[in-house]
Amino acid sequence: MHIHQNKLMKCFRHSVAILAIIIFTPPAWSSTKDRIGEKLADVKVTTLDGQAVNLLDYHTGKMFVIAYTGVGCPIAGRYAPRLEQLLKDYGKDGLHIIGINANPQDTADKVRDDIKELGITFPVLLDHHQQLTRQLDAKTTTVVFLVDKAGVIRYRGMIDNQYVLGAQRHKASRKYLEKAIRSVMKSKPVEVTRTAAPGCVITRIAPESTSERITYSSHIKRIIQDNCVACHRPKQVGPFSLTSYESVRGWSAMIHSVIMDRRMPPWNAAPEFDGTFVNERRLPEKDKQALLDWIANDMPRGHEEEDPPDKKFSRLWRIGKPDKVYTVKKGFSVPAEGVVEYQYFSIPTKFKKDKWIQAMEARAGAADVVHHILAFIVDPNGPRTQNSKLGLEDGYLCASVPGDTPSIFPKGRAKKLPAGHTIVLQVHYTTNGKKRKDKCKLAMVFSDDPVEEEVRTRGIYNLTFKIPPGDPDYEVRSEHTFKEDTQILGLYPHMHFRGKSWKYVAHYPDDTKKTLLDVPRFDYNWQESYILNKPITLPKGTKLECIAHFDNSDKNLVNPDPTEEVKFGEQSWEEMMIGYVDYITLADGGSQGTD
Ligand code: HEC
After folding, report:
1. Could you tell me if the CB of 322 is within 6 A of ligand 1?
2. Using CA positions, which residue lies closest to atom 10 of ligand 1?
3. Ligand 1 within 6 A of 223 CB?
4. Is 367 in contact with 436 (CB distance < 8 Å)?
5. Position in ligand 1 atom list of the atom nearest CA 227
6. Does 389 sit in the ligand 1 pocket, CB within 6 Å?
7. Residue 33 has what pLDDT?
8. Mean of the pLDDT values across residues 347-362?
9. Cα 281 off chain centre by
């Protein structure tokens, strides 16, 4: 194991800092439901024309006031001109106001008439399902919420203290909302963050009578099983299990935050590629809404006897019965803590004849500490290949990350395993405080049928870049022009800690271009292949370009050392820039496949 003490300590300290932030964030749904200092979760509300819209789409300025109103409530009406005045005074400073009506008895027509009479100019939206109202625990028709640019709630309560039901002061002596607006404008803490707003009490509609009631048994268990449990179950890479009601409820505040940020399930392709890749992990929008709604409703259990059955994770291989399983003989002792450099394991194959690999699946022995396994082949009689250059021209077999789908090629297509070649596994271990012994395995199914098309892999790489110290957005490009008609099956971008974003762009011979994959937020921890649902045909002469960006500044928390100039190299404090491509060369006049 090659460990560079200084840099590793830095890197380790950074991870501790990140962890601390994660663990000590106050729970988003604490029992007091105050929500001050928390991010507003997006919910669907309805326009007066009956359109369902996202509330946060209206949050386009520097500050955002959510002001509850109600038709017929005397003091809600009195506060309308005051809100208009605030808009006049602070609109130029980026203040936006949205009115929210959560009274199911106030129809859109009634609200429209009311707005007209009161001279309200800001948009008023309906929350008749009360999803927002439950999230904010809004109780009266004059309560306001001040939300800052980052979407964090900074003040809740009355606009000022002039009116209460049945009485009024001559003048407001405490202008809470305006004071809070001024503090937020100056990036200062808000002095009084919470007051009790007067007004008419909003009648709460039980969730049963609004939408279908969401409980753990009716929806949530299934959603968590489909999207999270592949990793979040005992002895897997997810740091805790989400296999019971108690654990999902206990983690709900964190679950809320990771699904809002799209951090979980991990999947880094840009949203416009949703549906493009076989192995995508994406929480469907409907499931995301159901989860948010359930959390906002205090996570009802439902009836245990109605729970869907536990998902079974077979210990069998998902590629079917393998013809051959290779195991790393000696294995590796994973330390309890620190950063472990990539480990390489060579496994000789002893076939006398070439074999054709129809399907492959890599598996960790200690799955809770293995973050990825890459498999390559090398010719033991050829020139020695440096670990950093494995698979550059060819010889890459597959990449596997936890919870991923295995590599299975369509019938008639396979990867070649030349007789006598050696398999090399590259394994990325992430320590978790517990010592582990790992022995990885690689299983293969060979093709019996004659193989019509060989699946090859090449790296499109740049070996000569020099990333300047401190550069937050350094661009590196590489390209390859295919000399034959080619079909692309999968893509896998590879960079290290400074990797920031990645794109594959095809430049067609007719001068048009198309982005095949965009990873706007590259994450070193998720080294994965993107396997296309539908192969993409590139006519001969197409240039495939890779565009990488690196963040070598101190803003990149995992940067081992922002003061270094960084070049290509195998160690994690060096960098890589390799765009792997799985492809088939189409025979002349042969099948064109789908595009
Ligand atoms: C492919 C594996 C995988 C899947 C699927 C997955 N997680 Fe995770 N999860 C992890 C790993 C690994 C971590 C530890 C942090 C890391 O390495 O990114 C983690 C961390 C978390 C954390 C802690 C906060 C954090 O960011 O570290 C939460 C909360 C979480 N996951 C919730 C979920 C939920 C909810 C789902 C499903 C909607 C889900 N995860 C799906 C692997 C997974």
Report:
1. no
2. 238
3. no
4. no
5. 37
6. no
7. 66
8. 92
9. 9
